[in-house]
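Troubleshooting log. The previous structure file for this entry was overwritten by mistake, so regenerating from the original sequence record. Sequence copied from the archived sheet and checked twice against the printout by T.R.
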Amino acid sequence: MVQGERIFSNSLASSLALVLLMIIAQLTVTGCSSESETSYLPKGPPIRIEVESLQEERLNYAVEFEVQGAVQIYSVSEKPILIRALEEPKVKIQVVGGKILLNDKEEPFTENPFRILSTEQPLVKMRVLPPSEDDSVNFKEYRGTLDVFFYGSQLRVINELNLEEYLAGVLGNEMGGDGFPLEALKAQAIAARTFTLYNMRRDFDPNGEISPDLAYKSSMEFQSYGGMTKENDRILQAVRETSGLVLTYDGSLFQTYYHSNCGGATASGHFFGEQEIAPLKGVTCDYCKDSPGYSWDRTFSKQDLEGVLVAWAGAQGLKIGKLVLLKPVDAYPSQHHAYLRIVHTEGAFEMRIDRFRKLIGRHFGANNIPSGRFDVKKNEDGKTLTFTGKGYGHGVGLCQYGAAKFGESATCGKILAHYFPEAGQKKLY
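Regenerated output below.
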């Protein structure tokens, strides 16, 4: 998870103002106290997340929604207007090729966007069907409401729900619950809540100038959110028991990054251009050494790497020759590197490690570069290069597998104090 793209919505201006006031206000210091398990999630400020986007050739796919029992459909505006209310055992809504189908019949209403709300059960199911309409495609379940925007060349679905509900979906996708101790999940919940509210505060305009379709992207560039798909009792408990808790430094929120496995030491916040503050200075970590992704190696054909780099350079207006050498440079104390030096027959240039990793991931899929903590060697055959490294992810902030091991014997407060030194805890709501 890293800081990334955002797209922005008008109906949240007053709610975001409330969040801003809560953040600025005098706050009460609390700990990671436990409560008896219940079946609910507490309320938090609202947030909007883009959960689907179809463009160009994918517009012929059908976005299908299913609601059990009573459903309401609204025209989304500054004041939503009810345009349909149905009470049936199951309601199916499809959007395909610019048409709206309600229980397989074409609907005359053309409101854009429109909102789907379940009144009996607080969830709506959604799936994207290919043109074959393969019924084996699974639904995902979402709390809150789903807003559907459709245009001539794009279709977007935005999930609006409260922050605590959103965090349950983030924990399920980012960390999972089955193999992680409760205290590690609680530490993750606090880090993810802080990260979200920090970015919501940064994006809030005090003058209320927010465009009509505000939403954050559900992605690895912001936070990976999967709705209710991977929720479980332990995740819900972690969210409940930390409700409203955030991390602060000098009384303010900060970017509480997190990643899968640091490989023995976390990287400085400078990796993302952050100001060097104590909680993001990087720490040693002895807890993740026996976990998946701690060490790895990847071998690539030199010719394949050269083809990818030549194509990328050409798109940037650069011309490069034959690949000679790849060398990571500008190492942080954690040995995570900031740049990769690419030497070719016509010269050399440097590329940010995170950009290089994304490029390799797009072209080689699972045979990717898991972290920026690696070395490269040319093999004896002269035709291949092997990357040998440690860790999985960018390496800044909370090490999730380290937190998992630490959480077997430590509280979430101790976990957070280790990975974010000198940070405090405060309760916002």
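The two ends are 25 Å apart (CA to CA). Archived copy saved in two places this time.
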